[in-house]
Specification:
Keywords: Disulfide bond. The protein has about 90 residues and is mainly alpha-helical. It has three helices and no strands. Helix content is about 50%, strand content about 0%.
Length: about 90
């Protein structure tokens, strides 16, 4: 996941994935939450859910043709409360 990995803001995007921008938005949100809240003992489970759902939806649309949707099905089985949230 690249937890807390800093990027050089002048570098080109490292991915040509159609979901790259959504992935980056989710990672940025998660890293900010982790640094500013989680390490200080504040655990809000609703933080970054919107970003995750947008990224997950994009993945499901783009992985269908590659027969890779099983990854998301497993995530839905492991996290049933988020499986239908889009």
């Amino acid at each position: 996941m690249g937890l807390l990995k800093k990027k050089d803001s002048t570098s080109a995007p490292s991915s040509t994935s159609p979901c790259a921008d959504l992935r980056n938005a989710y990672h940025n949100c998660f890293n900010k939450w982790y640094l500013e809240k989680f390490v200080k003992g504040q655990c809000d489970k609703e933080e970054c859910v919107a970003e995750w759902n947008k990224y997950r939806h994009c993945l499901s649309e783009n992985l269908d043709g590659k027969l890779l949707t099983r990854m998301l099905e497993v995530d839905g089985e492991l996290n049933p409360n988020q499986a239908d949230s889009k």
